[in-house]
Structures are given as C-alpha cells and as structure tokens.
C-alpha cells in the first residue's frame, strides 16, 4: 500500500504557541519605546508624560507582515486553519479593540472608522438597498401617487400603502437588532 504524500506548502507555524509568541512581539513593538537621555533617564513632555518614540497603531496588515505573510489576505486565509483560528481571531480582536478606542479620540476617528469597516465584520455602513427594499420603495411611491391623484379611489391604495410602511418598519427593526 502506498503512503500518502503531503500536498501543498508546509505550514508556516508548527504550533499555536509559536504564532502566539510572534503576535506578542508585534504588539510589543507597536507600543514603541520611551525616549531616554544620555544617562538612560526617561524624557518627559510638558505634561509630565514620558515621550514615546517609534509607536505605531496595530493593524491587521501590520500583524500579517510581522507574522511573515505577504498580505493581509494571506493572514485571513491562514486564520481558516483549525489549530490557529482562535489565536489569530484573538489577535485581530486586539487590533479591533485599538481601532474602537480610537473612535473616541479626536485625532484617530477617520482612520479607525476605515479600519473597522474594512477589516472587521459588522462594522460596514449600509449604502446600497437590497432588492426587496428597492421594490418596497417603488410600491410605496406608486401607492402614494395613487392616493394623491385619486387614480385608485377605493381603499386598496391606502391599504397597500399601510402594508408597505409596516414592512419597511419591520425591516428597519430587524436590521437594528443584527
């Protein structure tokens, strides 16, 4: 009986502990370092806080590069491996938490919003209407026109308008709870 040969590239990391160590190194590097004078004493700014140099925000792409991947997408693909899913998800959550915190920071709001919308599920702004919503709006406008012009004198137009409005309210409520 022939032995099975492994197909594809060997895994970049052999254990979750190995990748966790690299992840911790990345986040430590992002913190930067305290600027020190010639005697090794920390230098403080005018507010009494130590001056930090080489500090940078943690990002999904930065994490991917620090882990040796060629792109953000390569990291996301690696996240699909069963043994690394929790470790990489936790690291991405740390990046997400940093971005969330920046939403409350006057200087970081725009960048944080961009990162959250493009790197994490549930942060996208809805800009397009789905087909059902478009059709409901068309029907609503048609019913309004009929009600205003009297083209449909009976109560059908008003009933249809009421049902469309109710459907739109239900859709909005469902989207808010998601």
Automatic annotation (TrEMBL):
Coiled-coil intervals, chain numbering: 126-178
Keywords: Coiled coil
Superkingdom of the source species: Bacteria
Pfam families: GP3_package
Name used for this protein in its record: Uncharacterized protein
Organism: [Ruminococcus] lactaris
Lineage of the species this protein comes from: Bacteria, Bacillati, Bacillota, Clostridia, Lachnospirales
